[in-house]
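Example record

One chain of 81 residues, shown exactly as stored in the release files.
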Amino acid sequence: MNRAGWDRIVMALIAGGIVGFFVGYAVNYDEGTPAGGAAPVAVAAGDAHPVDVTPVRKLEPSPVEGGKTPKVIIHEVSDFQ
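Predicted structure tokens for this chain:
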């Protein structure tokens, strides 16, 4: 196909999408629906099962400071000092 053929196909797809949108809106329009139309949110009953909050595994505490002679020294410098 040459360029003129592709232009026709693209224009037909765009026109079909616009027409489809408005036809779908016209078919599904319900005048009785209030603005916003959100349904009420379901609330859990008082007799719901309790949630198990026990940890799966316990983590060991991380060391705050290393030994006296570390193998690596990290020196942080900030531009705001």
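Notes: The chain is about 30% helix and 0% strand.
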